[in-house]
Amino acid sequence: MRQTKPLSFLALCLLAACAPKPYADTNKSYKTQSRQFSKELLAQPVVDVNDTIKQPAYFVGTTNFNMRKPSYVIIHHTAQNSCEQTLKTFTTPASKVSAHYVICKDGTVHHMLNDYMRAWHAGNSRWGNQLDVNSASIGIELDNNGFESFDSLQINSLLSLLTKLKKEYGIPTANFIGHGDIAPTRKNDPNWRFPWKLLANKGFGLWYDEVRDTLPANFNHITALRIMGYDVKDTSAAIQAFKRHFMQDSTRQITDADKNVLNNLYRKYF
Question: Is 84 in the active site?
Answer without folding.
Answer: no
